[in-house]
From TrEMBL:
Coiled coil: none annotated. GO terms for molecular function: oxidoreductase activity. This is Nitroreductase. SUPFAM superfamilies: FMN-dependent nitroreductase-like. Residues 7-189 form the Nitroreductase domain.
Length: 212
């Protein structure tokens, strides 16, 4: 549908041209992220924009070192290979001119404290925590960022793979905000044309249930 082309033209981009992204465009994209809905309007997000190429490369090296460290804990070679084979996907941000780190802040799960006072079982508590509305807020902001970037001619790629190195990345960039943690990241840049494609989607009949 033509009206929804801004959605269908978004792709996960992993290769970028060596072209700078103006700071005003970055601000416009982040602004779109802040217009996402959030429970209780808490807006429990923070966006760290990294434009320095050396810092971006070092973040990739941090992921590489952490990947190697964790791989050494594998009890067998198959487990190790299964983990390390994804490293190239966890570091694709290294060739982008910009990386946006999306941090999540505290968010109270509605009814959780009352259930605790009631003496609810772990199963009941887990059922309330499981939907994780605080992360849903972050996901909404992230999707806005990706769609805004695409509509402005830029490429992005929603990434959570490098999160096993989130503490090391956060320490390296020096970001400090009480209660906030790295939830996701995306490279941002002008995409190589051959990257503008998407894998096939599951048919609606498989993922949709209609109750009348």
């Amino acid at each position: 549908m033509e009206k929804l082309d801004f959605i269908y033209k978004r792709h996960s981009v992993r290769k970028f041209k060596d072209i700078d992204v103006p700071i005003e465009d970055i601000k416009e994209i982040i602004k779109a992220g802040t217009y996402a809905p959030s429970g209780k309007n808490l807006q429990n997000w923070h966006f760290v924009v990294v434009k320095n190429k050396e810092k971006i490369e070092e973040m990739a090296r941090i992921v590489e070192r952490k990947n190697m460290e964790l791989a050494n804990y594998a009890k067998d070679e198959d487990t190790k290979k299964s983990f390390t084979k994804y490293l190239k996907y966890h570091t694709v941000f290294r060739n982008a001119p910009v990386v946006i780190l999306v941090y999540a802040g505290p968010y109270p799960s509605t009814g959780l404290e009352l259930l605790k006072e009631k003496g609810a079982s772990k199963e009941e508590l887990d059922a309330v925590i499981l939907p994780n509305p605080g992360i849903q807020n972050i996901a909404a902001a992230m999707e806005n960022i990706l769609l805004a970037a695409s509509s402005m001619g830029y490429g992005t790629c929603w990434m959570t793979g490098p999160n096993y190195a989130s503490r090391e990345i956060t320490d390296y960039i020096g970001f400090k905000k009480e209660g906030y943690f790295l939830a996701a990241m995306t490279p941002l840049g002008v995409p190589e044309e051959f990257e503008l494609k998407s894998p096939p989607r599951k048919p609606l009949e498989e993922v949709m249930t209609i109750i009348e």
